[in-house]
Amino acid sequence: MLAARVMRSARPARTTWFAVTVEADPSELSGPSRPDALARLAERHEVRVTRAPGGRGSEIAVRAADGRTREEVRALKQLLETGEVLVVEGQPEGHRTVLGRVARPAFRQLTRRGAR
Amino acid sequence: MRALCWTGVNEVSVEDVPEPRLLNRQDALVKVTASSVCGSDLHLLDGYVPAMLAGDVLGHEFVGEVVEVGPDVRERRPGERVTVCSIIGCGRCHYCREGLWSLCDNTNPNPGFQEKLNGHASAGIFGYSHAMGGFAGSHAEYVRVPYADVNAFPVPENVPDASAVFASDAVPTGWMGADLGQVGPGDVVAVWGCGGVGQMAALASLRMGADRVIAIDRFPERLDMAAALGADPLDYEHTDVLDALKELTGGRGPDVCIEAVGMECHGTGAQYAYDRAKQAVRLQTDRGLSLRQAIQACRKGGTVSVLGVYLGLVDKFPMGALMNKGLTLRSGQQHGQRYIPIILDRMSKGEIDASPLLTHPMSLEDGPKGYELFKEKLDGCVRAVFQPSRS
Prior knowledge:
The structure holds two protein chains of two kinds.
Chain A: H1 2-10, E1 17-22, H2 36-44, E2 47-51, E3 58-63, H3 67-82, H4 98-113
Antiparallel strand pairs in A: 1-3, 2-3
Chain B: E1 2-8, E2 11-16, E3 28-36, H1 41-45, E4 56-57, E5 61-69, E6 81-84, E7 87-88, H2 94-97, H3 112-118, E8 124-125, E9 142-145, H4 148-151, E10 152-154, H5 161-164, H6 170-180, E11 188-192, H7 196-207, E12 212-217, H8 220-229, E13 232-235, H9 241-248, E14 256-259, H10 269-280, H11 289-297, E15 303-306, H12 319-324, E16 328-331, H13 336-348, E17 358-362, H14 367-375, E18 383-386
Parallel strand pairs in B: 11-12, 11-14, 12-13, 14-15, 15-16, 17-18
Antiparallel strand pairs in B: 1-2, 1-4, 3-5, 3-9, 3-18, 5-6, 6-10, 7-8
Helix pairs in contact in B: 6-7, 6-13
């Protein structure tokens, strides 16, 4: 009991929201002009769009975002701001070692989505 | 095509790799004519940056010719000779709009690593590990350049590759060091490290009107090069730096201290031995000798401008000196896009010549030898530059 209470107080609860700021007016992210990718996210997750302070666009927050969803949210931001999502697969590369080839999917996952 | 790949700690090799292709609508393909080694590559080579995979193409400081552009590229055209900024910006996010290009939100598709380590991720960099986006580097015959309109800059005809190549990184990084320190007339500036970036920080400080620039290193040929630019050389192996800087500044200390060394700093004495030992057993990721010295030396109320690359944790950080002397600490990877047009213009007018940095022009096939000369500072090497068309 005591141990559990100490553990709880030692590790504060983490927020369940994953948020990004996008250079877009909130009006561009709601109603008929809402981007498809944002609509799809909203089907699976609770999504909150608010105006960012200081004319910095909009804050998009997604609840209970797993690794895949975080990747989607970042892609959405990139699409809205730059018009496309940057691709790094398919670039030139030299000989990959056996270990490198085996570890690559997990490595990619870690660098792309992060450990959370 | 041929490309220089990282194959393991302190191992590089030239390999046959597939040619790059346009992967995004705003990409350009550039035929590389010159690509320089950089001190920051040594951290990759030495295995201090964990997000490297054998087979990754190295190189981030380059000049070349545009050979193909994507359908949404508006400004750049095939045939143009361009310097490409080593740090990739998108041009549209809040940071790029503010001129803080190396903080770009959109050009690092692999932000997970840095977010865990640093809280947030910075921009993508060519050939600089998967933590910096996993972009193939420029030590190759061709390289793909994302968001080409904002990252590739036409080079004036009268500026040779030997100077233009350094407008990609060494010159704008040095320029930013002086700019962050707001160097102006009457200032005394001290620069730690006389590699390419340190040399250019000294030059930028002089161009911004500094009264005096003191350049600190231990290699005679690098100190001579700084002296040729107009700086006063200071050899830290033979002179106590803190003592000398006080004497040279009437006891005040330099107004601006520019650190152009980074996480693999060399030095002398017990502090250096301590740093090496702790880094070797990974109790600290970065050696902070020159950074500590810059903070200690800086005059009260002065600015310390950090250009050297640091990855994670530095031990024994002199927070007391920073706080009690009221210092300003400024830093960052270079916001090159802000400075490159000015630098190319000044190069064209003959006000900046970076070509003395190029001590070793080489073929791409000689890449491993080039890195060895550069790393071990052999044969007076300041920068080895690979020219893929050279045989």
